[in-house]
Design goal:
The chain is mainly α. It is 72% helix and 0% strand.
Length: 206
């Protein structure tokens, strides 16, 4: 025979476990959000500096850096990938809210959870297709960067730097972007799922 107070204690322990799990996932979400935000910010800073220095050189001495045209494009792609994951973690991606405005909060959260699962699959497919693209076409020389890579290799003696002159690290932005989007969608799904199981935190997450 199980006493009522034992049922209450078991229920309370379950609720506390859910709350602990929610706050753990929340900590992970904040950690990855900082990484995504930092990556996007760093990419934009590097992009600005390259374009700025290249512009100054062009209009002062009439010469621009050989790699100053191509590298900013690749840096921008990485910045976009970081930004996509960052926006997803903050629920600031583009979406239509006309239907959602008429739904109760709990049903809205379920709808968002379905979207999260779709985005997990989308991110995984993006990473996988990016990996296939890298393995098949990554060996192509980056025309504007191969000379820089050879000069860095000669100056440092590090043979690995020659990779900067090929498309491998730049096409890998698709792999990184897909992986980051998958992580972001998993974390958002976990946050909504754990919030739904605990009335104490359900109000915090849609």
């Amino acid at each position: 025979m199980q006493w009522p107070w034992e049922n209450f204690r078991l229920h309370r322990m379950q609720q506390e476990g859910v709350v602990i799990m929610y706050h753990t996932i929340q900590w992970l979400a904040k950690f990855f959000t900082r990484i995504f935000a930092g990556g996007a910010s760093f990419s934009m800073i590097v992009l600005f500096l390259i374009v700025f220095v290249n512009s100054v050189r062009r209009y002062t001495i009439g010469k621009s850096l050989e790699w100053g045209e191509e590298l900013p494009v690749f840096v921008a792609i990485y910045g976009i990938m970081f930004g996509v994951a960052w926006a997803y973690m903050q629920d600031r991606h583009i979406r239509f809210t006309m239907l959602i405005g008429f739904l109760p909060a709990r049903l809205t959260r379920y709808l968002y959870m379905v979207v999260d699962l779709i985005m997990v699959a989308t991110g995984a497919l993006l990473a996988w297709s990016g990996w296939l693209f890298v393995t098949r076409r990554g060996g192509i020389e980056a025309s504007g960067l191969i000379s820089l890579a050879k000069n860095l290799k000669a100056a440092t003696g590090w043979d690995q730097l020659i990779w900067l002159g090929y498309m491998y690290p730049y096409q890998a932005a698709m792999v990184a972007g897909g992986a980051m989007l998958t992580i972001a969608a998993i974390l958002k799904f976990a946050l909504r799922w754990s919030a739904d199981r605990s009335p104490n935190v359900a109000e915090e997450v849609l």
